[in-house]
């Protein structure tokens, strides 16, 4: 880990969004029907859904830290870490996103889980799932507050 967890302004454990939808083909296909069938096949299994989400995350420039990861807020960037198995603590730094590149970030609450949706300045969108609605909203508020300071 690059910096101790205590030096971060805020931290949140998240997982990939299982209901995330790929909006366009990521490889050459012969027809739209073939592409839709390929997406349907990949979304039947958990691994397929995760791979689909990873493809979308790579396309928008979000560093993937695994199926579950830890987000940490630094003064000028949002850092993505892999997380430890039991406690979900930050383990290894995977990458970071400059706060200036985040156009909007919001926490959307559902019945069973909360989602964090990040809209990048260049138009990319990524969805993450958080277990705690309150923690997700506090984390988003802290990110927006820090982004507006820079």
The H-and-E topology, N to C, reads as EHHEEEEEEH
Structural class by sheet pairing and helices: alpha+beta
Determine the fraction of residues in helical runs and give it as a percent range.
Answer: 25-40%
Query: How many angstroms does the end-to-end distance come to?
Result: 24 Å
The rounded Rg comes to 16 Å
Number of strand segments = 7
Tell me, what's the shape? globular
Query: How confident overall, as mean pLDDT?
Result: 81
Q: How would you sum up the major sheet?
A: 7 strands, antiparallel
Strand order of the largest sheet: 4-3-2-1-7-6-5
Individual helix count: 3
| Percent of residues in beta strands | 25-35%
Low-confidence stretches: 21-26
Provide structural commentary:
The protein has 150 residues and is of the alpha+beta class. The chain has three helices and seven strands; from the N terminus they run βααββββββα. The chain has a seven-stranded antiparallel beta sheet with strand order 4-3-2-1-7-6-5, with helices on both faces. It is globular. The two termini are 24 Å apart.
């Amino acid at each position: 880990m690059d910096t101790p967890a205590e030096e971060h302004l805020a931290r949140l454990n998240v997982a990939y969004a299982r209901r995330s939808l790929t909006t366009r083909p990521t490889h050459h296909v012969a027809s739209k029907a073939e592409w839709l069938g390929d997406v349907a096949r990949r979304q039947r299994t958990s691994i397929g859904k995760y791979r689909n989400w990873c493809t979308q995350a790579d396309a928008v420039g979000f560093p993937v830290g695994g199926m579950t990861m830890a987000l940490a807020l630094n003064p000028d960037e949002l850092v993505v870490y892999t997380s430890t198995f039991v406690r979900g603590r930050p383990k290894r730094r995977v990458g970071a996103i400059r706060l200036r590149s985040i156009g909007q970030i919001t926490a959307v609450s559902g019945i069973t889980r909360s989602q964090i949706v990040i809209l990048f300045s260049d138009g990319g969108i990524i969805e993450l799932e958080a277990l705690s609605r309150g923690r997700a909203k506090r984390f988003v508020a802290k990110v927006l507050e820090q982004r507006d300071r820079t």
